[in-house]
Amino acid sequence: MSSNITINDADLKSRLAHFGIISPITNTTRQLLLKKLYNLEISSIHNQSNQNKSNTEEQMDTSTNDLNEYEIRNGISKLGYKQVPLTDTTRPILSNILRKRL
């Protein structure tokens, strides 16, 4: 963390409050709170990145058994989706979507 960070007290207090930290900002606590904010924001970015990666992998999971044609067509009807041609490309995607929605 750079020691040249310039942030006013109101912004520091607001950004800390986002993480649930309510603390008075004084000359003695300012550097500690800046460091804490930096660590919380880095951790938050890291967690978001991991969550996005996990969501992408979950959405694209086509490794499980596909539903059969009847199950897919029935699921599409139940959810009110538009019927689409079932191909080698669309079948695993539709199966994955329907498993999560039904």
Structural notes for this entry:
There is one protein chain. This protein is an all-alpha fold and 102 residues long. The protein has helices at residues 9-18, 30-59, 69-79, 90-101. The model has no long low-confidence stretch (mean pLDDT 82).
User: Number of folding domains?
Assistant: 2
Strand content: under 5%
Number of helices: 4
For the secondary structure, the number of strands is 0
Question: How helix-rich are the residues, as a percent range?
Answer: 55-70%
Round the Cα radius of gyration to an integer and report it. 24 Å
Structural class: mainly alpha
Low-confidence parts lasting 5 or more residues at pLDDT below 50? none
Which shape, going by the Cα principal axes? rod-shaped
Give the terminus-to-terminus CA distance.
Answer: 47 Å
Largest sheet: none
- SSE pattern: HHHH
Mean pLDDT: 82
Brief descriptors of the model:
4 helices; 2 domains; mainly alpha; single chain; 102 residues
Quick overview of this protein structure:
This protein has helices spanning 9-18, 30-59, 69-79, 90-101. It is mainly alpha-helical.
Q: What is the topology?
A:
Elements: H1 9-18, H2 30-59, H3 69-79, H4 90-101
